[in-house]
Every structure is written in structure tokens, then in C-alpha cells.
Design goal:
Strand order of the largest sheet: 1-2
Shape: globular
Number of strands: 2
Radius of gyration: 10 Å
Order of helices and strands: HHEEHH
Number of domains: 1
Length: 55
């Protein structure tokens, strides 16, 4: 995420942005809930509309 958003914004985004693709939780909450990191990253990629080269 830091590569895509920049270090400061990535941390803020991960904490504050709620992803419908993850059932309405943020990246930080998803990690705390035990979601697989691959699942989280795929949700971020889909949400942001990034192409397969980012995966």
C-alpha cells in the first residue's frame, strides 16, 4: 500500500477507509479480525480499480 499511496497516506487509509469488499471494515480492522492478507490486498486492489499488474 505504501508504494501505491505513499507511506503516510497508506497508514491513514488503512485505518480510516472502510471497504465494502471486506464486509464494511478497514484494512487495520480486517488484520485484527484475522483476515488473510492476500484477501485484504485483493479487496484494496478491487476497490481502487487497479489492474492486475498491481496484484
Amino acid at each position: 500500500m505504501e508504494f501505491q499511496f505513499g507511506a503516510s497516506y497508506a497508514r491513514s487509509w488503512a485505518r480510516d477507509y472502510v471497504l465494502p469488499e471486506l464486509g464494511g471494515v478497514s484494512v487495520v480492522e480486517a488484520i485484527e479480525l484475522g483476515y488473510e492478507t492476500k484477501t485484504i490486498w485483493e479487496a484494496v486492489v478491487k476497490n481502487q480499480g487497479w489492474g492486475p499488474e498491481v496484484r
